[in-house]
Amino acid sequence: MIRVLLAEDQAMVRGALSALLSLESDIEVLGSAPDGEAAWREVQRHKPDVLVTDIEMPGLTGLELAQRVQRHELPIRVVILTTFARPGFLRRALDAGVCGYLLKDSPAEQLADAIRRVRHGGRAIDPQLAIDAWSEADPLNDRERQVLRLAGDGLSAGDIATLLNLSAGTVRNYLSEAIGKLNAGNRIEAFRLARQKGWL
């Protein structure tokens, strides 16, 4: 049996995924979680073979969850199931050790097939996204991405500085670098552009 854990913040989607996968004779759904932090606790408790996670969730995102699995060197294969057909997200997912990346509008049987493939050491990546992912590199470093995301949430440079334990001047420098790299007019435009590309 392939032991699977689901991380998805939408209750109806979470229930549907669990019901669909439970119909497969070789897949056991151990449980599900509504956010990234709860998923991390469930991962530690159940130690699944495969974690199927959305990207956008409260607490930890699916990408941050995958990074945590990778950092702790857990023998868990991660499959991203998302609505975001953004090459930047796929690149970051692959950097985080993700083995599968599927879109939610894919046929249902593709998810079970992807789970089997990654469990046995393979990859399951949407082919068009795989091509697009290498067409444009993410220009932001991790700190610029972090600061820009917080600025996009409406925090001031001072608020971000306090939150990240940096000086306000350092935060402004990171924002300036991000704006310049994205050829944006201001931090809001930079945030919008980076989000469209999947770099945030």
TrEMBL record:
Span of domain Response regulatory: 3-119
Keywords: DNA-binding, Phosphoprotein
An example Gene Ontology biological process: phosphorelay signal transduction system
Domain of life: Bacteria
Provenance organism: Cognatiluteimonas weifangensis
Protein's name according to its UniProt entry: DNA-binding response regulator
Residue(s) carrying 4-aspartylphosphate: D54
Residue ranges of every copy of the HTH luxR-type domain listed in the record: 133-198
GO molecular function: DNA binding
InterPro entries: CheY-like_superfamily, Sig_transdc_resp-reg_C-effctor, Sig_transdc_resp-reg_receiver, Tscrpt_reg_LuxR_C, WalR-like
Record has Phosphoprotein as a keyword: yes
